[in-house]
């Protein structure tokens, strides 16, 4: 099943790469303040929309049932959260002030150490995986509005 999820998530992976690079560049090379630029390249928002939208089509065109569609959405969330976690580690390890280590991104009033940042990111992995499962479930429900794929 993971092979199938990985194959179907290829367009998402490309988008995730684009958004991640954009987020890195905005916060470092272009020096856009976090408050002004974070919404432009948001991995969490990308993932929620990808989960919702892709689940619509997995139901209508692939005939997936709810658990499989929600699982696919959760798979994409885990991958996205691992990218966020690794970007946070790189940011801290090399002392790069980026959107990934910014206090607001970590829901903190001021800078925190790597260990606290990793705990926060671990919580984000759990919460965002569950939220994407819900988004995938909603998308699956909306998939009932699409016509079935011809020949089904």
Write out key terms for the chains shown.
single chain, 152 residues, 70% helix
Descriptive account of the structure:
- The chain is mostly helical and 152 residues long.
- It has one domain.
- Helix content is 70%, strand content 0%.
- Helix 4 (43-62) packs antiparallel against helix 5 and helix 5 runs antiparallel to helix 6.
- The radius of gyration is 17 Å and the shape is elongated.
- Average pLDDT rating: 96
Order of helices and strands: HHHHHH
> What is the C-alpha radius of gyration, as a whole number of Å?
17 Å
Structural class: mainly alpha
- Terminal CA distance reads 22 Å
The description of the largest β-sheet is: none
Global shape: elongated
Taken together, the total number of domains comes to 1
Q: Report the total helices.
A: 6
DSSP, total strands: 0
Q: How big a fraction of the residues is strand?
A: under 5%
Q: What is the helix fraction of residues, given as a range?
A: 55-70%
Low-confidence segments, given as residue ranges, are none
Brief overview, please?
By secondary structure, this protein is an all-alpha fold. It has helices at 2-8, 10-27, 34-37, 43-62, 66-93, 114-142.
Would you spell out the secondary-structure blueprint of this structure?
Blueprint: H1 2-8, H2 10-27, H3 34-37, H4 43-62, H5 66-93, H6 114-142
Helix pairs in contact: 2-4, 2-5, 4-5, 4-6, 5-6
